[in-house]
Write a structure and sequence with these properties.
Elements: E1 8-13, H1 24-32, E2 38-41, H2 47-53, H3 57-60, H4 63-68, E3 73-74, E4 83-86, H5 101-124, E5 130-135, E6 152-157, H6 165-168, H7 171-181, E7 184-187, H8 190-200, E8 205-206, H9 213-221, E9 237-241, H10 250-259, E10 264-268, E11 287-290, H11 298-302, E12 307-310, H12 324-331, E13 336-339, H13 343-346, E14 353-355, H14 358-370, H15 374-384, H16 389-406
Parallel strand pairs: 1-2, 1-5, 2-4, 5-6, 6-7, 7-8, 9-10, 9-12, 10-11, 12-13, 13-14
Antiparallel strand pairs: 3-4
Helix pairs in contact: 1-16, 9-12, 10-14, 12-15
């Protein structure tokens, strides 16, 4: 094993280890921790977050870390001893500020505080050989202070921040700094590679999202007790897993629900969709919302789905997305109906129903449900092979070593 592969990894993103949705950054960190020491920094809580969420369990066990910088380390049950979750000190609320001197000043204060947490990690654990890995957080840690001497500074982008309303104000500037300063630039999709190379003029490598394929295969290979939410249901189940929000084509989703009244549409994940549509999904009799579930529980729900859907809009944001859920649901043997929102998704047309328009999407739901032969289920599962996080980490190390040799 090379010296680089022996490095400790200090990683941060916009996801917390105990967040409600599966996170690519957290999955990468977990896989890396099987062989390396990994410190995974929470997305920092701001003063505004603290006031709003102070009574929530996720914040309660972090209070001392947020307020006083004490007890910042957490060992997560079920993960390798190499994995340490880290909670930074609380930050000033700055995202509402306009671009300019005031924002830069207070953002600079936040970043000094953020890097003090990294100082503490390095000092407490006597790290000499380490990699700094910013996995899509253009607000913190985009310019590494000179006192740090990482083996590599890695920046990974997973969405086009230029197409996200809340990210445009400050995220684009932050990402440009990260692009400028990073030794290794990673993206998850073909279009995102194009966007970053055009914006930064540097070589960008594609590290696609993957899946915990071994876990999700259990949806097809094992027997499960029916979840309480689905007991008594006699209709075919059409499932969506993820945030019912910004990326969803609600006009399409409403049309599907209305045209397939003989089917139950099950939405698992945050359902705070109201800012994005006037459609009242909860009032529709064949729609069931289920709160977010831990990753390990999703195969039990997938087991009882007759097909899954990815009804994404086709716009500047989604054309840069390689959906995490595609490989997860293929590993589970599920028939997937999806809009043709990105060129990477179109690469799955041999095993998924990639739909060019509304009518095709609606019709493909029944086609998908009727396609669940043993042969097709096996074909989908085989298609997911080679798309595990273990495979992605092997590719990451190859890319990292290639960059290291040229520096």
């Amino acid at each position: 094993m090379s010296d680089l592969r022996n490095s400790a990894i200090i990683m941060w993103s916009m996801s917390r280890w105990d967040g409600p949705l599966s996170s690519a950054a957290f999955s990468i960190a977990k896989e890396l921790s099987k062989t390396n020491q990994v410190f995974y920094l929470d997305y920092p809580y701001t003063v505004k977050d603290y006031i709003r969420q102070k009574d929530e369990p996720e914040l309660k066990h972090r209070k001392l870390a947020i307020k006083e910088g004490k007890n910042i380390y957490t060992k997560v049950p079920g993960l390798s001893d190499n994995f340490t979750a880290v909670t930074p000190r609380g930050m000033l609320s700055v995202n509402f500020m306009p671009e300019g001197f005031i924002y830069d000043t207070f953002s600079g204060i936040n970043n000094k505080r953020f890097f003090k947490t990294i100082d503490k990690i390095i000092e407490d654990h006597k790290l000499e050989n380490y990699i700094l890995f910013n996995s899509f957080n253009p607000f913190y840690g985009v310019k590494i202070p000179k006192r740090f001497k990482p083996a590599l500074f890695v920046y990974q982008s997973r969405d086009d921040i230029r197409a996200i309303k809340v990210g445009v104000k400050h995220g684009v500037k932050g990402e440009r700094q990260a692009i400028k300063n990073a030794d290794l630039l990673l993206v998850t999709s073909t279009n995102l590679k194009r966007v970053l190379e055009q914006d930064g003029g540097k070589n960008v490598r594609i590290l696609p999202n993957a899946a915990e394929t071994k876990l999700f295969r259990t949806a097809a290979e094992e027997t499960f007790e029916i979840p309480k939410e689905l007991k008594g249901n006699a209709m075919p189940v059409v499932g969506y897993i993820g945030h019912v929000g910004l990326r969803i084509d609600f006009e399409l989703l409403e049309a599907c629900i209305n045209r397939h009244k003989d089917k139950l549409f099950v939405m698992i994940g945050p359902g705070d969709y109201e800012p994005f549509t006037e459609v009242d999904l909860r009032s529709m009799p064949n729609v069931l919302f289920i709160d977010s579930k831990p990753l390990k529980e999703l195969p039990r729900y997938l087991h009882f789905m007759d097909c899954t859907i990815i009804p994404f809009l086709k716009n500047d944001l989604t054309k840069s997305i390689y959906p995490l859920k595609m490989n997860e649901q293929l590993a589970a043997g599920k028939a997937i109906v999806c809009t043709d929102f990105s060129e990477d998704v179109q690469g799955f047309e041999d095993v998924a129903y990639i739909s060019a328009n509304k009518e095709e999407f609606i019709e493909n739901i029944q086609v998908a449900i009727d396609s669940n032969s043993e042969e097709n289920i096996k074909k989908r599962m085989q298609r997911s092979e080679g798309n595990s996080w273990k495979d992605r980490i092997q590719l990451f190390w190859q890319m990292a070593e290639s960059v290291k040799k040229t520096n």
